[in-house]
Design brief:
Blueprint (H helix, E strand, L loop, with lengths): L15 E2 L7 E2 L14 E2 L2 E2 L3 H9 L3 H15 E2 L3 E2 L3 H12 L7 H13 L2 H8 L10 H14 L4 H5 L4 H13 L6
Antiparallel strand pairs: 1-2, 3-4, 5-6
Length: 184
């Protein structure tokens, strides 16, 4: 379950915090608690740590965010091309974080989304060894679901292309090409 750091008191509404000015703002990752992470697998076993890692990425602290994203990458897209069961469930949160100006590693998140969209590892293996598709845990299905999740949220590309940060625009352009979209 996602918790808000002590210096950000919660208001009576779920998913909101009350800043010093008294105006409520949307807290990122409000839907992360709705995912049964402990019932999913990542590269380490249980995916129960993913919400904490996503919170670390959202933290606004560069070192914390970078470390959390590195650990998240290892869990959901190991080696940059091996996805896991929890990858597809994580993708919408990556898209959300990539659009938040306070997130310090947005370009790296976009690179991770590109890696996920490029994955074909398990499908390639299943092509050579079709019996893989008969296993209860089917990584080829996980891979397809992860790619589809990246494609499902590509409407955010237009907003990201309009950013002033050239690193984000470049990463967005690469992701758009991977998704078969021509950058604006």
């Amino acid at each position: 379950m996602h918790s808000v750091p002590p210096e950000q008191p919660r208001t009576g509404q779920r998913g909101h915090r009350k800043p010093q000015s008294g105006m409520a703002t949307i807290t990122p990752l409000t839907a992360v608690g709705r995912i049964p992470w402990s019932e999913m697998r990542d590269s380490t076993g249980s995916a129960a740590a993913i919400p904490l890692l996503l919170s670390g990425v959202a933290s606004g602290d560069t070192e914390t965010a970078t470390t959390a994203l590195k650990n998240l990458r290892e869990r959901i897209c190991q080696y940059g091309f091996v996805v896991e069961q929890a990858t597809a469930a994580t993708v919408p949160f990556l898209w959300e974080l990539a659009q938040l100006p306070q997130v310090t590693c947005r370009a790296q998140i976009l690179h991770l989304l590109k890696n996920i969209a490029d994955t074909r590892q398990w499908e390639s293996i299943a092509g050579a060894y079709p019996k893989l598709l008969n296993h209860r845990e089917n990584p080829a299905v996980w891979e397809r679901a992860a790619r589809e999740a990246v494609h499902a949220h590509q409407d955010a590309l237009d907003v990201l292309m309009s950013e002033d940060d050239t690193e984000i625009v470049h990463a967005t352009t690469e992701l758009a090409r991977t998704l078969g979209r021509q950058p604006c």
